[in-house]
Amino acid sequence: xxxxxxxxxxxxxxxxxxxxxxxxxxxxxxxxxxxxxxxxxxx
Length: 43
Fold this sequence. Notes:
- The protein is mostly helical and 43 residues long.
- It has helices at 8-19, 25-36.
- The model has no long low-confidence stretch (mean pLDDT 89).
- Residues 1-43 are annotated as: Disordered.
């Protein structure tokens, strides 16, 4: 199991990439990958 997690700053940037209609599908794939490695729930 990978214990590394995406930081809040990177997760925020990745979220913006996914919401932006001008970004490429490859960029969105990388952003989704980063978000999938964020901490679920919690505080």
